[in-house]
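User: Please predict the structure of the protein below. I'd like the answer in C-alpha cell form so I can feed it into my own downstream comparison script.

Assistant: Understood. Taking the following sequence of 160 residues as input:
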Amino acid sequence: MAGVSTLFEAHLPVTNLETSIAFYRDRVALEVAHVIEGRVAFLWIGGRGTAMLGLWSAGPAPQNLTLNLAFGSTIADVLAAPQALGALGIAPLDFDGRPTEEAVVLAWMPAVAVYFRGPDGHLLEYLAMLPDSPRPEAGVMTWTTWYAVGSASPRAVDRA
C-alpha cells in the first residue's frame, strides 16, 4: 500500500458556480484547470499538477452546509494575509471567527494561520507549519504573543 504524504484535491459544494470560480480565481489566486459549464470547476492549488480544488454546483439548497479547507502557504504569506485579505474586501478571521489584524498560532502543531470565508460561507484558511516544538498547553494565541513569549524559533522569524 502506498503511503499518504499530502492532500491532492478537495471538493466544495457551491450555490453559484460562476461567483465561486471568480472568487477562487481572482481573490485566492488559483488557476482554473477545467470547467464543465454549470456543473463543476477544477482549480490548481500551488500550480499545475500540485493539488486541486473542485467546486461543484449544488444550486440553492435548504441546508446550509459549510466546510473547512486549509491552503498551505509560507510563514511570510500567512503573516501578510490579514492585510492582503482586507485589501480585497475579505474579512480576516482568528481561530474563533472574530475579525483580526494578525495571524494566530495553533500551538499544538505549531502552525500559523489566518481564516476567512468564501462566497458560500465555507471557512478557508492559509496555514504554514512552524519549525518550533509543539506546545499544546499554550492553546491558540496571536503571532505577536507567540513571538513575545519566545516560542518562535529564529528560523521561523527569518522566514516570516
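That's the full C-alpha cell string. Residues 66-160 form a domain with the 2,3-Dihydroxybiphenyl 1,2-Dioxygenase; domain 1 fold (CATH 3.10.180).
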